[in-house]
Amino acid sequence: MKLKSIAGLALAAGMLFSCAEEAKEKVKVDDPYEPKFIEVAKNGKMEFGVDEFEDVAVIRYEIPGFNELTLKEKKLVYYLTQAGLAGRDIMWDQNYRHNLTIRKALENVYVNYSGDKTTDDWKAFETYLKRVWFSNGIHHHYSNDKLPAEFSKEYLNSLLAATNTELKGEAFEVIFNDKDNKKVNKKDGVDNVLVSAVNFYGPDITSADVDEFYKTAYKGSDEEPIEAGLNSKLVRENGKLVEKVWKSGGMYGEAIDKIIYWLEKAKGVAENEKQAETLGLLIEYYKTGSLDTWDKYCISWATSTEGNIDWINGFIEVYNDPKGYRGSYETIVQIQDKDLSKKMEVLDKNAQWFEDNSPLIESHKKKNVVGVTYKSINVAGEAGDASPSTPIGVNLPNNNWIRQKHGSKSVSLTNIINAYSKIGGAGRLKEFVHDDEELQLEEKYGKLADKLHTALHEVIGHASGQINPGVGQPKETLKNYASTMEEGRADLVGLYYLMDPKLKELGLVEDTEGAGKAAYDGYIRNGLMTQLIRLNLGDDVEEDHMVNRQWVSAWVFEKGAKDNVIEKVTRDGKTYYNINDYVKLRELFGELLRETQRIKSEGDFEAARALVEGYGVKVDQKIHAEVLKRNEAFKSKPYKGFANPVLVPDMDATANEIKDIKVMQPAAFDNQMLYYAKNYSFLTDKK
After folding, report:
1. Secondary structure in 3-state letters for 124-178
2. Are strands 49-53 and 574-579 parallel, antiparallel or unpaired?
3. I need a surface site. Which of 149, 250, 403, 426 has the fewest CB within 10 A?
């Protein structure tokens, strides 16, 4: 049931648990909506695996350093986490217009069905619901394909009838038919907006409509443009195109009001005045929907670098918009890992050196790289676009002029990366490496190489380069290729510098050559082969990051063919890629980086299309079939995501105040999803 007031929500959230032990005693075994926790062994070791289904593994992550925070800091983390969860349903509705209706019905069936749960049909229903939970909707979180229902209409109807659940019309039929098959479709030669099911546009809106609307829409000044369209849905009303803004009193207003409530509480326990000022601007933005205020907030956030706690909150990444305008709701609450941050801060201190020494055309280099702040952080909670599937590194804000004038923040999600390392094995690696030397390099340097590439990608890569005067923003010039071009460009910056002696000089690595070779081996192996594990046979590559890894790898493979830089080897009927000349490969990465930055700087759409379509989308079906066959021997799932730790307030009953906050680990994925559905479902009007 829903709470009827914000005050009631706060009281319920505060009084939900009195302490960790009492909370466990109060949980009723037969109440699926109340949180259940695992016991962490006395030696501190935790079982990281939570659940597995289809192509997904759900795991847990710890929050190192939380117990060392002051009570005020713990409250700040708690309030920010609650603010994030309050907007959870926004992401569901953004992903597809029927998602919330479908989820509510499926959850009601899941909880109330008392029939036979040993049948193949029930197991198929259960798996489908878990996949829907993981993807925040009925489309796959990575491929964007509609999730297949491995049960019949008749069976679902029988479940609905048995549980007195209503699901009818288009929301029912779309589970089984061919309509809205692709959440985001960025393929060349189609109307990308019209054929994408994502709920950023009315069902009748076309790409031409979007282009026409933003010719005359308010975009700020030429020197300091706003991120037009970032926080709205474009629809047609009475024959006219209008934006339905996501704000208090507007679209998603019910959930946004709850976000604002928790942000106000967070502001009250901010670590310093700058942090409080920044939270105040975020609150004002949510109240007004003003993208000018959003820019003010982003500037304040990017320049607020003091304190142990930080956050990402808002409508941010535009990967889910085929036109690159609208931001998906996302939150990540962060606790600084001081030791690792200290070790890596040399990157942002030397950002200008990297820019000056890059292979870019001189006019495309920034003369003054401003304020690239890098931190290693431990995640304390995630929601929206960051959960259950999460990034391992983030660089924000996205607005180019803010990055150039005021700088940006880059973070590496340390505890997420560590949790990934707890799951899986070396079997798949041994299957796809070319020889023992490649295996040994990966085992010795692989983790370090991955961390360095992530840091270079986020800190140096996204901060690098500049657009020529008079050239529009990439979403306007490069259109549906803007996101994959930017990610590929940042990857290339990292790849180019991973073999540079400067990293050893800065104390980041002892053996630049060894770590660089491991990074190059892993990137090519993944870009040309192992990432295909994630695709069904016959599919094109479509997700922006997968596309960029393939076009980078395929381009350098082709261009280095005459010098045999990368050799395609067939042995015992199996394919391998062996790098024969790492130095020449680095030169090719530099050459491609130079061209990629030129394309962005000049807004060369046709060159972007040639690069992406020519190298990044189509798959060698023979190689793909082989990869899938070889992968059948391994149980490790290709996709991993996370169940969030639960922050449990320990209340002083007399004063009705929080006296401490404990971290508990969720017992099960389905339990956490049902708890979220009960306590954070605030959207009632989604028109």
Report:
1. HHHHHHHHHHHHCCCECCCCCEECCCCCCHHHHHHHHHHCCCCCCCHHHHCCCCC
2. unpaired
3. 426
| DSSP, residue by residue, 654-680 | TTTEEEEEEEE-BS-HHHHHHHHHHHS
What sign has the CA pseudo-torsion 398, 400, 406, 408?
Answer: positive
Give the pTM. 0.86
Task: Classify the phi-psi angles of 28: left when phi > 0, otherwise alpha if psi is within -120 to 50, otherwise beta.
Answer: beta
Q: How many CB atoms lie within 10 A of CB 594?
A: 17
Which strands sit side by side in the sheet containing 408-413, from one edge to the other? Answer: 309-315, 329-336, 372-384, 408-413, 393-396
Tens of pLDDT, residue by residue over 608-659, are 999 999 999 999 999 999 999 999 998 889 899 999 999 999 998 887 899 9
DSSP state of 458: I
Residue listed under structure tokens 């790409």: 207
**Is pLDDT above 90 for 513?**
yes
Beta carbons of 96 and 203 less than 8 angstroms apart: no
Q: Phi first, then psi: give them for residue 146, nearest 5 degrees.
A: -65, 135
Cβ atoms of 366 and 464 within 8 Å: the answer is: yes
- Those residues whose C-beta lies under 8 Å from the C-beta of residue 306, and which sit 6 or more positions away, are 271, 272, 274, 275
- pLDDT at residue 41, as a whole number: 52
Q: How many CA atoms lie within 13 A of 598 on its CB side?
A: 13
Residue 348's pLDDT band, with cuts at 50, 70 and 90, is confident
